[in-house]
Write a structure and sequence with these properties.
about 25% helix, 4 helices, Creatine Amidinohydrolase
Length: about 240
């Protein structure tokens, strides 16, 4: 999985450099598949029943699972690239959000910085002997303390021979930390920070079988890493 994660990261780094104003999300997806295959891997997402693309590409109010299309990416769009690679029998999963063209106002810069910081603080809590609730708690505190909203119906997850495995990794606490599962050596999970600027409510995007959007049209973002918990440390695989 470490090798697969490295290959996914390499492909994604090249993919992010490929994205620019005027390109379609369909073109981005085709390049993503090409890059993963070049690394010797396969698309994880194409192994999900009924999903026929290598990436989920969400823009602005779109939250997750948006299939690539003829939609044109525009300068200033807040775009999330969610991507997975299948390599030698195992999956790894990764997502990041950024502004197309790089330039934006301070409000959006802070919004994205808070989510990315929350992910790395959550990873720091993902250690053998801690609990899933320790991860959930730090994400919840970071997002809510900055005035943003967690999409509670969407969570992180275990990952391995299947793309989505137990356990679920919520971005908020729904019970006391001591009543959540203990993190053990050998566990591999995808921690996801999925949040929005204006609401925790989501809905299906009209006319789109897969896509989920914020109910109020506010901006959404997602930051995700696949990590492995060992006896001594936590390894970011992606």
């Amino acid at each position: 999985m470490k090798q697969g994660g490295e290959k996914l990261k390499c492909a994604t780094t090249k993919l992010l450099a490929f994205i620019k104003d005027g390109i379609t999300t369909e073109e981005i997806d085709k390049e993503a598949e090409r890059l993963i295959k070049k690394e010797g891997g396969e698309s994880s997402f194409k192994r999900v029943k009924g999903y026929h693309w290598t990436t989920c590409i969400t823009i602005n109010e779109q939250v997750v699972h948006t299939p690539p299309s003829k939609r044109i990416v525009k300068k200033g769009d807040v775009i999330t690239i969610d991507i997975g690679a299948y390599y030698q029998g195992f999956h790894t999963d990764y997502a990041t959000t950024f502004v197309v063209g790089g330039k934006t106002d301070a409000k959006i810069k802070k919004f994205l910085r808070v989510g990315e910081d929350a992910l790395y603080k959550a990873i720091d809590k993902a250690r053998a002997g801690n609990r899933i609730g320790d991860i959930s708690s730090i994400i919840q505190n970071e997002i809510y303390s900055n005035g943003y909203f967690i999409m509670k119906q969407l969570t992180g997850h275990g990952v391995g021979r299947d793309l989505h495995e137990d356990p679920f990794i919520p971005g908020y606490l729904d019970r006391p930390v001591v009543k959540t599962p203990v993190l053990k050596e050998g566990l591999v999970i995808a921690i996801e920070v999925i949040y929005s600027m204006g609401t925790e409510e989501i809905k299906a995007e009209p006319g789109n079988k897969w896509s989920i959007v914020t109910s109020d049209g506010s901006l959404s973002a997602c930051f995700e890493h696949t990590i492995a918990i060992t006896d001594k440390t936590t390894v970011i695989l992606t």
